[in-house]
Amino acid sequence: MNKQALIDTRRRISPFVHNTPVFTSHLLDDLAGAKLSFKCENFQKMGAFKMRGATNAIMQLSKDQQERGVVTHSSGNFAQALSLAARNLGVTAYIVMPNNAPKVKKDAVLGYGGLITLCEPTIKAREQAAANLVAEKGATFIHPSNDLNVILGNATVAMELLEVHPDLNFLISPVGGGGLIAGTALAAHYFAPQCLVIGGEPMAVDDAFRSLQSGQIETNLTTHTIADGLRTQLGDINFPILQQHLDHIIRVEEDDIVSAMRLIWERLKIVVEPSSAVAFAAVLKNKAYFKDKKVGIILSGGNVDLDTLKFS
Amino acid sequence: MNKQALIDTRRRISPFVHNTPVFTSHLLDDLAGAKLSFKCENFQKMGAFKMRGATNAIMQLSKDQQERGVVTHSSGNFAQALSLAARNLGVTAYIVMPNNAPKVKKDAVLGYGGLITLCEPTIKAREQAAANLVAEKGATFIHPSNDLNVILGNATVAMELLEVHPDLNFLISPVGGGGLIAGTALAAHYFAPQCLVIGGEPMAVDDAFRSLQSGQIETNLTTHTIADGLRTQLGDINFPILQQHLDHIIRVEEDDIVSAMRLIWERLKIVVEPSSAVAFAAVLKNKAYFKDKKVGIILSGGNVDLDTLKFS
């Protein structure tokens, strides 16, 4: 891992991803008492930053590996990201999904050309189904967050933001499986050493916060958070990066997340998913700490189910 | 009225308004069978195009008039637009609102520095209250849509869009009080004579459609549309412009509006108000007519009440 690897990654994937816009708002600055820059990955292709890591991971495979396809298990954004990234690169994507996954998520994967294998909704069943595809098709398994090439791809979010605002005091991104925050931490380490990287995590699934305290990867006892992209846990590849380069994690309550999401929708006029609002919620909860600082906030994605959305 | 008046207007107001971005989507292009360019006035200051007309109307007053303030009656976007535009220009804005206006709308006006006068929720009461302010304060009444300087300010939306996409075949904007569509029609007339201008109007409040048929200004019998910005009727200043320069109006049902709004939220990942979706709904309802054409769609604003929002 070195600075050049990040530069190479950005050059590699740039034809296949958007350099997403950075939004600002005087009103939200006044509210937070800080100078905020929002990196809008909700406008990324397929609607989330995961397009970056998926693209990079596939591009780093050998021609031979690419011909045999890629496989992952996910019912969320990574399933869609791998499907679209694979299609863009002429590669077959096999997606293992639980048989109780919402139709809208299955349709999205199919729309991007992914081939779905349904399984029972247990971790064991989905790992078995993925292993079968690896064995039968010779496909390469790609983990949504605990994969170095995925992490490097995700690092390009912060690289782009730091290119526009090189003098940020803080960079904040949500913490789920650890792939985005690890990439963010690497980008700041190499391109903005003055910039502290902070994670935002829902209190209800604070495995990463506890992992950093205990020094070992902790698990979540429940998944009861509206931030459905953050229910997963860290892995052995991203955890050491966080131990080395992350300053700390701020935990937020469910009400904080909904309030922050509402402010983003109402004031920035953009659609972001609950997971995206966690980083902004962390700033609003610690105004004194961020007072008058330049803060980069990564809005990770914008895929929401409008049918179930309720703000009150 | 001439081309130079539009050019002067744009130069005059440009320090006080955003040149809003133009969004595109391959997915929505495929769905519509046309090449769509969305002009995003939801990102305009205070969240709607009305900021443009309000700013221009105030700037065209004499110094003496400006010192005595401006007045309007509105419970919607124009009340906020006039308040903010006035504050930006150091002018006092008196806003007449019905006493049953939602608190969120009153708070928005107050937040932009407008001085509210409450009245009974009848047309007669609000006209009387506005007349009183004109008499007492010497303030100048500014109509939200039936005012030439407001129309010229609104024309800058289409001017900006045509600067980016000069070769549009069609320009479509929603029709309410007629201020936006009249400005759009003037802009196309002077800057893109090849471009036909079309209005989108809810079937439930199709006064403008009927006015163009009958040759006189018609009224609405009900205001039963989700597109709350379009319940008003044309005026004697904008109607002749529409008679001369508008190609035709497409009427859409309530379901069409909600579906179009949903597509914009889900695919463009932006928050637009129902009125904004009417123009896109008109395209989706007439796919054969717009097939393979370059279509500019004006998204008029993004001020929605998330508490009452429901897609299903």
Automatic annotation (TrEMBL), chains A, B:
InterPro entries: TrpB-like_PALP, TrpB-like_PALP_sf. GO terms for molecular function: ATP binding; L-serine ammonia-lyase activity; magnesium ion binding; pyridoxal phosphate binding; serine racemase activity; threonine racemase activity. Pfam families: PALP. Its cofactor is pyridoxal 5'-phosphate. GO terms for biological process: D-serine biosynthetic process. Residues 13-301 form the Tryptophan synthase beta chain-like PALP domain. Keywords: Lyase, Pyridoxal phosphate. The keyword Lyase applies. Belongs to the serine/threonine dehydratase family. This is Pyridoxal-phosphate dependent enzyme.
